[in-house]
Amino acid sequence: MSIEIQGINKFFDRFQALNDINLTIPDGQLTALLGPSGSGKTTLLRIIAGLESAEQGRILFSGRDVTGLHVRDRSVGFVFQHYALFRHMTVAQNVAFGLDVLPRRERPGKPEIRQRVNGLLEMVQLDHLANRYPAQLSGGQKQRIALARAMAMRPEILLLDEPFGALDAKVRKELRRWLRSLHDELHFTSVFVTHDQEEALELSDQVVVMSNGSVEQVDSPLELYARPDSRFVFDFLGQVNVLSGTIGNGIIRQGDAWVKLPRGCDDDDGQLYLRPHEVRLTQQPTREAHLPFRIEAISVIGAEVRIELKPDGWECDELWEVGISHSDFNARKPQRGDRCYAVPEVGHLFCEHLDEPKTLNWH
Amino acid sequence: MATTDLSARPARRLGAPVSKRVLPGFGLSLGISLFFVSLVLLLPISGLVIRAGGMGWEQFWFVISDPRVVASYKVTALAALAASLFNCVFGLLMAWVLVRYDFPGKRLLDAIMDLPFALPTAVAGITLATLFAENGWYGQWLAKIGIEVAYTPLGIVVAMAFTSVPFVVRTVQPVLEELAPEDEEAAVSLGASDWTVFRRILFPVLWPAVVTGGALSFARSLGEYGAVIFIAGNSPYVSEVISLMIFVRLEEYDFPAASAIAAVVMGVSLLLLLFINVWQGRYLKRLHGG
Amino acid sequence: MATPRHRRVGDSPLVRRSLIGLAVVFTVLLLFMPLALIFVEALSEGWAVYVGNILDEYTLHAIGLTLFVALLTVPLNMVFGVFLAWLVTRFRFPGRKVLITLIDIPFAVSPVVAGLLYLLLYGGNGWVGQWLGQYDIQLMFSWPGIVMVTVFVTCPFVARELIPLMQQQGSEEEEAGVVLGASGWQLFRRITLPNIRWALLYGVILTNARAVGEFGAVSVVSGNIRGETNTLPLHVELLYQDYNAVGAFAASSLLAGIALITLAVKAIVEWRQSRL
C-alpha cells in the first residue's frame, strides 16, 4: 500500500512544525524519515498514522483519501518510541489486544487468537516469554513485542517511531538486521523515524531527510550519500571537510590554501565540501592543490586509521578528518605535529549563486 | 524558518471533521467537568459575592470592622502563624528523618503522619481538649509548670498545628528524596562541617518546599473550625476564631454580617491559594528546569 | 583514620540517633497519644457501656445518616474526579490551568464558609431556595443539604490523586490502544483503569474519610436535629456538650477506626505503586 502526502502543514500554536510536505512513499518499501530532533519527522509519522492532524493537506493510502479517517479505522501498525506496552498485561495479552477489542462479529474465537499470538511470538522469536510482564523484559525484547503487537492486525502499513533509539549499540545492530529481513519477507510498507544517519542509510530503501519542518531531500541511500542536495544534508550525513574561500581564475583560495577547480567555475564565494574518503594525504603539495595541515590527532581504532588535521596558514570551523588504511599508516608512520598536505579526489562545490552543488572530479 | 507570524496560520478548513482528537471523551469529560464545577463551585461562590457585594460598602465595612470581629482576625492569624511555624520545623525534622534514616517502626511513623487528614476534625477537637484539660494526660503536667492550654489562645495553636501536620512533611519529603548525594559529598570532601553543608547546600534547595508546605498549613489553619472550637474556650475578644464568628452571626440570623465576614475570609483564602500555585510553579520550574 | 568517615550530612551516629529520637518523641506526643486517648476514653467505663453507647438509638441513626451521605457523595465525586483527571491530563485546551486551580478551592475555603455558600443559595432566603420553596422542597436543614456541602468539600480528592499519576504515565499506552482499534470504553476499562486503580482507590478512601468526618460545613446546613439530621461528627459534638464524654468518645472511636483504615489503605497503595 503506497502512502501519498500532499501539502501537509502543521502548527503547534505559533510554531510551524511542518511546512508544505509533499511526499510519496512507495508500496512495499522501507522508508526512513531522517533528521535532527525538532525537524518534524515524528510529527509527520504521527500524522500519517492519524495520531495527529494537520491544519492543511491530505494523506492518501493507495490513492484513497484517509485524511478524515480516525486512527482506529486507518488500520496501520504503529510502534511507539518507548514501546507503550500495556504494563499490566502479559506479553501474550499485549499481542492479543488488537484482536480482543474487535467487535464480537469480527473477533476470531479464543483458540484462533491464541494460535495467532503464538505465531507472532514465534516470528519475533520470543514465544518463551508469553507469560512475562513488560517490566520483566529487556529493551530489545520490549521492542520486538511492540512490533508483534502492531503486526497482529496484519496491517499493510507499519510505522515505527525511533524504533532503536533506546537500545544499546549491539542490540541495535542486531534488531536492525532482523527488521530488515522481516521486512523483506513480509513486504509491508514501512516508515520509520530516526536521527541516526547510519541507521537510515543501512536499513532503508528510501531516505527522506528533514530539517525545520521541511523535506530537504528524498533519495536512495546510495544517491543521498554520493550526491547530497544541500549543505544541511551534507553536514548531517557524516563527517565532512570544508574549505571556504573565494573563487577566482578557476582557483578557490583562502590564506595559504588553494585548490584548482577542474572545469570552469564562475568567480564567487564558495565552499568546497569533501568526505574523509575523498581526500588523499601526501608529504608534498601537488599542482592541483595546496592544502597545508599539521596532524592534530591519530586514532588507530577501527577499519581505518583516522587522522585529524589542523589547517596551517588558513582557517576552518572544524578540524579536517581523513581516513587512511592501516598498511599506509604502517608504511609512513605519521606523527602528531607532522606537516602534510591534503589532495582532493572528489569534491562538492557550493556557491552563493548556485542552487545545487557541483560535484567535481580531479581524476 | 522555525517560527512564523501568527497571520500565516491558516484558518481551520471548513468542513473538516470536527473531532480531530485521537483519544476519545474530550466532549464528554469537558461537559461533565464544566457542569460540575459550575454547579458545585462557581454558582455558590458567585452567590456569596453577589450577596456581599449587594450590601453597600458602608454597611460591609461596618460589619467586617466590628471590634469583636477584628479581634477574631488577629487571634486566627496569629494562631495560624504560630501553628504553621511549628509545622515548618516539625515537618522538616520528620521529612528528614523519614527520608534519610532507616530504623524499626519507620513505616508506621510515616503512615501515622497523615492521621490529621484522616481523622474528623470534631474528633481531633474533643481529643485535644481532653488531653490538655486540667486533669488531662498533658494538662495536669503542664499545669504544674503554670502553662494553660485548654480554653486559651494557646489551645487554638495546638488544634491548628495538629490538623495541619502533614503539609510540610509531605511537601519536603519528595524534594529530599530527589536530592543527589554528590553535592553533599563534594562539600563534605572539601572539609565543610555537617552544619555548614546543611546551611549552604541543603537548605537553599529545601526552603521553597518548606515555604509551600507552611503556606498550605497556614491556609488550612485560617479556616479551621471543628478542631478549634472544642479547645478554644470561645470567649469573645480573646479566643474566638474567624470561622466561629461567621457561625455566631449565622446563629443570630444575621445573614448579611455572616456573608460579609465570609467574603473576607474567602478572599484571603483564594489569594493564598493563588500565591501557593504561582510560588509552586516557580520553584518547580527552578528545580526541574521546565 | 580513627574517626569513622560519614558520607552524607547527618550520618554521624550522634546526630542520627538524636534526630530519630526527637522525631519519635514528638510523633508519639502529637499523634499516637491522641489516637490512644480516643479508645481509652471510649472504653473507660467498660465494654458493656461502650457497646451500649454505640447501640444507642440516636447514635445508630447518626451512623446510618453518615453512611447514607457517604454512599451518595463518594460515587458522585469518583465519577467527576475520573472525568476531570482524564480531561486535564489527556487534552490541551484553553482554560486547562484555570480548571486545575478551581478544583483546589474547596481545600482552601473554610468549611464554615462552604456551608454558608450553600445556605445562602439554597436556604429559605436564597434565590434557588425561595424558588424551590414554592414547590415545598426544602434542601437546607435536611439530608440533601448535607449531601450537597459534603460533595463540595470532598470534590477535589479523587482528581488530586489521579492527575499527577496520569500526567506521569502519559498517554502513549492509550494511543497504542486506539491504534489497535479499541473504543473509548474499552480503552478506559482495559488500559486506563488498571493503571490508575490504586490511586483511584486511595482517592475514593480519602473522599470517604472526609465525607464521613466533615463537621464545619455540615454543621452550618444540618440544623442538628437529633435523630434526623445529625451526622456522626455532629453527634459527637452533641454528646460532648451534654457532658457525655464517654459516649462522645465511643462515637469518635468509630470515626477513628475509619481514619485508621484510610491510613492502612494509603500505605498499601504506596507499597503497590512502588513495586511497579
Topology (SSEs and partners):
The complex is a heterotrimer of chains A (363), B (290) and C (276).
Chain A (H helix, E strand, L loop, with lengths): L2 E10 L2 E11 L4 E5 L6 H9 L6 E6 L2 E2 L5 H4 L2 E3 L11 H10 L9 H14 L15 H13 L5 E5 L7 H18 L2 E6 L2 H7 L2 E6 L2 E6 L1 H6 L4 H6 L4 E8 L2 E4 L2 E4 L7 E7 L4 E4 L6 E2 L1 E8 L5 E7 L8 E5 L1 H7 L6 E6 L1 E6 L6 E4 L2
Parallel strand pairs in A: 3-8, 3-9, 6-7, 7-8
Antiparallel strand pairs in A: 1-2, 1-4, 4-5, 9-10, 11-12, 11-14, 12-13, 13-16, 14-21, 15-20, 17-18, 17-20, 18-19, 21-22
Helix pairs in contact in A: 3-4, 3-5, 4-5
Chain B lengths: L25 H28 L3 H8 L2 H34 L5 H7 L2 H4 L2 H12 L6 H6 L8 H11 L1 H14 L2 H9 L4 H30 L2 H7 L9 H10 L3 H34 L2
Helix pairs in contact in B: 1-14, 3-8, 3-9, 3-11, 6-8, 6-12, 8-12, 9-11, 10-11, 11-14, 13-14
Chain C lengths: L12 H30 L3 H9 L2 H34 L5 H7 L2 H4 L2 H12 L4 H7 L9 H12 L1 H14 L2 H8 L4 H30 L2 H7 L9 H10 L3 H31 L1
Pfam families (chain A): ABC_tran (PF00005), TOBE_3 (PF12857)
InterPro entries (chain A): AAA+_ATPase, ABC_SmlMolc_Importer, ABC_transporter-like_ATP-bd, ABC_transporter-like_CS, Mo/tungstate-bd_C_term_dom, P-loop_NTPase, Sulph_transpt1, TOBE-like
Protein name (chain A): Sulfate/thiosulfate import ATP-binding protein CysA
How many H/I helical runs of chain C? Answer: 14
End-to-end Cα distance of chain A:
44 Å
CATH superfamily of the largest domain in chain C: MetI-like
Spell out the helices and strands of chain C N to C.
HHHHHHHHHHHHHH
> Portion of residues in helices of chain C?
over 70%
User: Measured on Cα atoms, how large is the radius of gyration of chain A?
Assistant: 25 Å
Low-confidence runs of chain C: none
Domain count of chain A: the total is 2
Helix content of chain A: 25-40%
Q: What's the helix count of chain A?
A: 10
Family (chain B): Belongs to the binding-protein-dependent transport system permease family. CysTW subfamily.
Keywords (chain B): Membrane, Sulfate transport, Transmembrane, Transmembrane helix, Transport
Transmembrane segments (chain B): 26-50, 71-97, 117-137, 149-169, 201-219, 226-248, 260-279
Organism (chain B): Marinobacter zhanjiangensis
